[in-house]
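Why do we care about 3D structure at all? Because function follows from shape, and shape follows, mostly, from sequence. That is the central idea of this module. The next example makes it concrete: a single protein chain, its amino acid sequence, and then its structure expressed as tokens.
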Amino acid sequence: MAFVKVALDAQEPTVAPDGEYDMRLVKADIKHSGPKAKIPGEPYVSAMIIIEEAGTDYQPFWHTLMIPTEKTDEENVNRYKLNIQRFLACFNIPGDADGFDTDDFPGSTGRANVVQTTNEESGEPRNELKLPRLG
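And the structure:
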């Protein structure tokens, strides 16, 4: 085996402090809830977000958009739709009465509040997006 010369001095990025930031969507994937979920197989969009503030190197984070289906509890349908509408508005992503296209997500930019929370499974700090209310 060959020796690879590279300085191994990288540092883990930190989570952003609470505040309002310029952000960019990196990618979006349609996934399905796991077998232990209240409704297994329920679809959702997982969007990867990076904070684009000069001089910062914050850890990327994800935002989940639950997609209502005929199996979704009635009390959650409006909340799911409102979260989607707020997200699309914040990141200037087109959408209409029929829905939206996740191909429009990568590269979209927006500005919103971010808060620090704790990952329930690992106990590690992470960021969470707080979307502005619709105008």
